[in-house]
Amino acid sequence: METIIKINKKQVIIDAAADLFKEKGYKATSIRDLASKVGLEPSSIYSHIRSKEDLLCEICMVCALKFSVGMTNVMESQISPRKKIKLLISLHLDIAYDNPASATVFNDEWKFLPELELKEFLELRKKYETNFKKILLRGKKKSKFEFINEDIVFNVIIKMLSWSYIGINKYNKAELRDELSCLIINAIDKHKSKS
Amino acid sequence: METIIKINKKQVIIDAAADLFKEKGYKATSIRDLASKVGLEPSSIYSHIRSKEDLLCEICMVCALKFSVGMTNVMESQISPRKKIKLLISLHLDIAYDNPASATVFNDEWKFLPELELKEFLELRKKYETNFKKILLRGKKKSKFEFINEDIVFNVIIKMLSWSYIGINKYNKAELRDELSCLIINAIDKHKSKS
DNA sequence: CCTACCGATCGGTAGG
DNA sequence: CCTACCGATCGGTAGG
Predict the structure, then answer these.
(1) Does residue A181 sit at the B interface (CB-CB below 8 Å)?
(2) Residue B100 in contact with residue B165, Cβ under 8 Å?
(3) How far is B8 from chain A (nearest CA, A)?
(4) To the nearest whole angstrom, how far is the Cα of A1 from the nearest Cα of chain B?
(5) What is the pLDDT of residue B165?
(6) d(Cα B21, Cα A125) in Å, to the nearest integer?
(7) Backbone conformation region of residue B40, classed left if phi is above 0, alpha if psi is from -120 to 50, else beta
(8) What is the three-state SS of chain B?
(9) What's the pLDDT tens digit per position in A137-166?
(10) Residue of A7, A18, A95, B144 with fewest CB within 10 Å of its CB?
(11) Are A137 and A150 in contact (CB under 8 A)?
């Protein structure tokens, strides 16, 4: 029972931290801000966490893991490149809607991760990028997609999807998914009028 | 002569600040970092600027003004919505390539602007957004563009273009402009295969 | 443009 | 989980 309370309290602190990091940025958020938000004295925060950096690690790594697992599932399925891209769009939206604040922090504040976790983060991101590009190139080879540079296309799509962290407040998931799917697939699909 | 030296030195400080704000973030950059970068003692910085906030204002507002002027030129020209969008893509790339560090700071650190400048910044952004959406809706009305929600489309295009601040290191302007133009125009153009 | 220094705030610890 | 407190660092000023 005591343990459960402690775990919950820790999660409350992490969630409050995600909100503050999103709103003010990691560096501009103080432990005192966080303490006042969860109704504790600043020093009491350290009964639940080891450091401010740990909070950022927890938030970013949970998100990174979701993306890793999601990508693995997509890569293992036997479907067309186009359907894989659509699944990845859904993956981004699922993660964003599951915890909008965390997703935003993951997206904007990862550069403040401590050395070890930063390295791990960048490795996970690199793997994700490699797999994403494989799908793009597979679609290009099968003459389903059309583009010149897969690096540019990958980065641009990721940026488009990262807007969903903001769009969450205005649109429901299905609405956003449909419009984003249309825009992204149209951007890279073959058989369209030339610009 | 003295004045010219002073102006140049101020610009050196502003440019160094843009580099640091881009690399470490505004809040994580100290006046001591900046001073050591330009080879001065921390207090000597204040012979050239009034405050750290002023540096951010200068950087962000110069960029904001470039976008405002660029948009005004586009809106005054008598060309098709599609050509206007292409001009705006070029505008983003011109600004990004003109000063990559400033463009990045403008994009990522504006939320740390002091109250008055933040208000001004948001007003300029709102005007830009309104004009951009007008072009999108005009193209939709003329059955040139196809999309459901112009707010989503606007935000997604802006995000795509903001990637150019990173892509600068890897690609030249023409290369990036061509690929981005293709992707963006294809995303919204009519007469393409359905996804 | 420097030396010297200010009050405020930071992340975090000691001890209970 | 609190009170009390630490050393470090912050943006910025005084005075020359």
Answers:
(1) yes
(2) yes
(3) 31
(4) 40
(5) 85
(6) 23
(7) beta
(8) CHHHHHHHHHHHHHHHHHHHHHHHCCCCCCHHHHHHHHCCCHHHHHHCCCCHHHHHHHHHHHHHHHHHHHHHHHHHCCCCHHHHHHHHHHHHHHHHHHCHHHHHHHHHCHHHCCHHHHHHHHHHHHHHHHHHHHHHHHHHHCCCECCCCHHHHHHHHHHHHHCHHHHCCCCCHHHHHHHHHHHHHHHHECCECCC
(9) 999 999 999 999 999 999 999 999 998 888
(10) A7
(11) yes
* Closest among B95, B66, B72 to B162, alpha carbons compared: B95
CB contact under 8 A, A187 and B191: no
* DSSP secondary structure letter of residue A41: -
CB spacing of B149 vs A175 below 8 angstroms: yes
Question: 3-state SS string over A94-155?
Answer: HHHHHCHHHHHHHHHCHHHCCHHHHHHHHHHHHHHHHHHHHHHHHHHHCCCECCCCHHHHHH
Q: How confident is the model at residue A7 (pLDDT cuts 50, 70, 90)?
A: low
Is any Cβ of chain B less than 8 angstroms from the Cβ of A83?
A: no
CB atoms within 10 A of CB B144: 16
Digit-coded pLDDT (tens) for A52-83: 999 999 999 999 999 999 999 999 999 999 99
Going by C-alpha positions, the residue among A124, A159, A122 that lies closest to residue B166 is: A159
CB proximity list for B150: less than 8 A, separation 6 or greater: B133, B136, B137, B140
List CB contacts of A2: < 8 A, sequence separation 6 or more: none
Which residues of A are less than 8 Å from B159 in CB distance?
Answer: 159-160, 162-163
pTM of the model: 0.93
CA of B53 to C1' of C10 (A): 19
The residue-averaged pLDDT of B92-113 equals 97
Q: Does B143 touch chain A (CB under 8 A)?
A: no
Judged by DSSP in three states, A30 sits in coil
Residues 6+ apart with CB under 8 A from A24: A33
